[in-house]
Amino acid sequence: MDAERFDTVVIGAGQAGLTAGYHLREAGRSFVIVDAHDRIGDNWRERYDSLHLFTPPWAVGLDGFAYPGPRSTMPTRDQMADYLETYASALALPVRLGVHVTGLSERHGRFVISTDRDQLEADNVVVATGAHRDPRVPAFATDLAPAITQLHSLAYRNPAQLPEGPVLVVGVGNSGADIALELAQSRPVWLSGPINGFIPVDIDGWISRHIAFRIVRFLGLHVLTLRTPMGRRALAKSAGKGDPLVRVKPKQLEAAGVRRVGKTVGTQDGRPITEDGENLDVATVVWATGFRHDLSWIDLPIFGQDGAVVHARGVVPDAPGLYFVGLPFQFSRASETVPGVGRDARYVVKHLLRRATPAHDDGLATVR
Q: Of 40, 94, 241, 332, which residue is 20 to 30 A from 273 by alpha carbon distance?
């Protein structure tokens, strides 16, 4: 069976992939967006129930269609998910859902996108699968006693899904702090790990939403970039470190009764143990330990010695026609955020449109 052919295939229907699709549609190109989820926005709906964005409503809107939600509060998880769904519908973007991409390779001068359904071929591919894909859990997690419930923060929804009893939240990033603060309302909570700084102001206040965020957005988009010495220093400094706390403050955790402990380093008698030697008797461990960006499904010579994609602002020099949108610090500190994906998407699509499409004897499938 012949593979279906397109000028461009976009992998991922989150904010990065949809924005790239908008610019491809504006240029009149033949393309399709494929995504493994059953519904657009599910990448947000899969997060914990109480999640609110750090981005104010005026800055949430993607290229071509403004955010239609309430302007008085930060968007919720579900409001952002619904916006993405409305965005794709209003702009008539060709999205195919429930398509799991299993491989990306090259054959006879074209990219081959293997899926759990069939194969697609394209002259160009935009990988917009997001900054992270796979939950990361330490190897010693398997040594915890079977009676201890374990779940990654990606699987956490609300306190009701956990058994009664004390909880250890491992990882003091924004998700870990949010979850610890929420759980502390109903049970004892330990929060393990160092804090990598915090934003001292209330980000939900009027001044922060309308004034302070504009300054932060400008810095993230235009100052902390790969073109500036300050941006390159920020990239080097952030390597391997977590983000600072944005909404939750250390004093809020303390006031809620969350007990801070050192880094969790292993187990003892089936229970988690910290670097300070504390053996914690808990009923549940929530691993807020981040994600790894798994690109092992790409079978192309595009990776450096450190395993990262070699690219210039999302353009891959060793695989002409291959692009990325939504990578961490793809061009700026804001690249993996909602306000930052638009500029990167515009850049890679502009580059794609300048690229001469290889001549082939057969036609391209047209989806508009």
A: 241
Q: Domain map of the chain by residue range? A: 4-133+293-354, 136-199+244-287
The pLDDT of residue 234? 87
Say whether 249 sits in a helix, a strand or coil.
coil
| Residue 268 CB coordination number (10 Å) | 12
| 8 A C-beta contact, residue 88 and residue 61 | no
Residue 6 pLDDT class (50, 70, 90 cuts): very high
> What whole-number distance in Å separates Cα of residue 226 and Cα of residue 329?
8
The average pLDDT across 173-198 equals 96
Segment 255-268, tens digit of pLDDT: 999 999 999 999 99
- The single residue listed with the structure tokens 């990361």 is 136
The C-alpha atoms of residue 19 and residue 344 are separated, in whole angstroms, by 9
Is the pLDDT at 25 greater than 50? The verdict is yes
Handedness of CA 52, 239, 285, 190 (dihedral sign): negative
| Tens digit of each residue's pLDDT (9 = 90 or more) over 47-94 | 999 999 999 999 999 999 999 999 889 999 999 999 999 999 999 999
| Nearest-angstrom CA–CA distance, 230 and 72 | 34
Measured between alpha carbons, how far is 287 from 169 in angstroms, rounded to an integer?
A: 6
* CATH of range 136-199+244-287; options 3.50.50.60, 3.40.640.10, 3.60.15.10, 3.10.180.10: 3.50.50.60
Query: What length does the chain have?
Result: 368
**Strands 259-261 vs 264-268: parallel, antiparallel or unpaired:** unpaired
Contacts of 72 (CB under 8 A, 6+ apart): none
Dihedral (CA of 246, 75, 56, 38) sign: positive
Nearest C-alpha neighbor of 308 from the set 239, 234, 355:
239
The pLDDT value recorded for residue 361 is 40
Kindly compute the dihedral angle of the four CA atoms of residues 106, 109, 115, 119, in this order, to the nearest 10 degrees. -140
Q: Which fold has domain 4-133+293-354?
A: FAD/NAD(P)-binding domain (3.50.50)
Cα(294)–Cα(313) distance, integer angstroms: 19
pTM: predicted TM-score of the whole model, two decimal places: 0.91
The confidence band for 169, taking pLDDT boundaries of 50, 70 and 90, is very high
| DSSP state letter for 315 | B
